[in-house]
Amino acid sequence: MIVFNAFKKILWSNKVMIIIYTLILVLFAGFNSTDDKSQMNFSATKPDILIINHDKDGDISKSLIEYIGNNSNLVDLENDDKKIADALFFREINYAIFIPSSFSEDFENGKNPKIEIKSSKDYNSSLAELILKNYLSTASIYRKEFKGQELVDIIEKTLSNSIEIGMTNKLDTKKLSELADYYNFANYSLLAGCVFVICMILTSFKNANIEKRTIVSSINYKKFNRQLLLSNALFAFSLWLIYIILSIILIGKSMLTVHGLLFAINSLIFSMCTLTIAFLIANAIKNKEAINGIVNVVALGSSFLSGTFVPTEYLPDGVLKIARILPSYYYIDNNNLIKSLEKFDFKNLYPLIMNTVIIIAFALIFMAITNFLSKKNRKKARL
Question: How far is Cα 105 from Cα 207, in angstroms, rounded to an integer?
């Protein structure tokens, strides 16, 4: 109880920073929320597709474009990488298809010319991909036996007899996206709040006089660490609970669904992981003045690399490879997976489970290193 009472006093003195990080999260959630009512969409939809055709005279490419046009909304846009990237980002288009020169000729000759695509990675882009693959797979079946206009005719005849492709979306995607954005940004708030406050508390326990008294006392360093860990765990849990309550207030009943439960569980596990990160950092430093800098490196660095501020689909592959060494990457990846879940079977939940196992593994590694550093620091203090 002595450790816990001391913990409460130091925690209270740092209440301002807790409030600040919480307000940042609330403001972010407010900016991402709109007054428009979300719609439950059960009807077939057509994606917005841009086609850049470098095979102007090819019969197959002309037929492909016509087929795509009949099953989607073709968008006319200048062939400029920046403009196309902006259009994908703002969902002006869902899919961009770049047909290479000599595509028709190479395709008829049995080659597999590569069609470059760029995607917004949403539901409509998945439908666009299905439309493209449907044409190409049908054409691949007939190209061994037919050539030229005869090949085009048989492809179009076959596809005209096919069932019309459509996508039904039973998810309230708007609210789920708001929830995913909220909990993605909570990565920063949880890391910054836990690391700053817990480091301030634990470095206070490293006061020379307090540390010497602890060393000469009968309490074992592991028991001392456990008591501090439990006190900090209570703080991390309380902070997590505040964020859960805020999400219900700001976003509404979507939190009271299976998706909301998964978001809550994912953030709770990550909160415990941030606790071990803060505990590790606090055992590695003694200077309180260094804490602000460490918060910026850990919280901001992890958030930028892992997709808190910029969606992961727009981050370079090199950045994402680096992000894989951070627990934040797996936490945010889980949030992005949860928002698109329609079926809660083992096959769909397996990626979530694996990411969760990785986050827990990170926490165990951080605790093992913390115990090692704590034991080493105590030996130095006795000398």
Answer: 78
